[in-house]
Here is the input.
Amino acid sequence: MQKKGRILKVKQGYNPNSSSVGSDLPLFLAFAAGSGILAIVVMTIFHWIDKTIRRDHDS
Here is the structure.
């Protein structure tokens, strides 16, 4: 008959060595870069629309 192990201690929280955050880090960085690029594109479009409206309104 095989001897079974027993639980000596239960630890709450996460083990940093086996955390999934390390594997998700490149994805987080990609989303951060993408959101920065998206913000620049959206603000450029808003600026172009504002310039167009002001030019049409002034004439």
